[in-house]
Amino acid sequence: MKIKSNLEEPANTNSTQLSPNRTRALKIEERGDFFSGKTVPMVRLRGKWLQAAGFPPGQRLTVKIVSPGVIEMRVCGKPAPTEAFHIAAMRLDRAIATAEARKAQEPA
User: Fold this and answer.
1) Are the C-beta atoms of 70 and 90 separated by less than 8 Å?
2) Contacts of 96 (CB under 8 A, 6+ apart)
3) What is the pLDDT of residues 57-106, one digit of tens each?
4) pLDDT digit string (tens) for 13-42?
5) Where are the alpha helices (DSSP H) in 1-108?
6) Alpha carbon 92 to chain centroid distance?
7) What phi-psi label fits residue 6: left (phi over 0), alpha (psi between -120 and 50 degrees) or beta?
8) Pairwise CA distance, residues 61 & 27, whole Å
């Protein structure tokens, strides 16, 4: 089973020119023994955009559950973001949600 992103990679695949700020839509897959019902959820990430976002091959990651439906991935050894970063991220999330809500209300 393969994950398909709803975003296409740009024609120029030079990793230094890929924008790490792009949103990716991925599918949560299921792995395991379907016959016995012993399955677990799984998300696979791959693509040149990962390196452009600061996740080079061979590095180890830490994954933190921030809240239900929100995880944080960090390359091991990288400093934690500052409080100002978290505030800016929350404001950005709110602005995106507001823009999406306005767009959904627009007549087709």
Assistant:
1) no
2) none
3) 888 898 999 888 888 888 887 666 777 777 888 888 888 888 888 888 88
4) 444 455 555 677 888 899 988 888 899 999
5) 48-52, 83-105
6) 15
7) alpha
8) 20
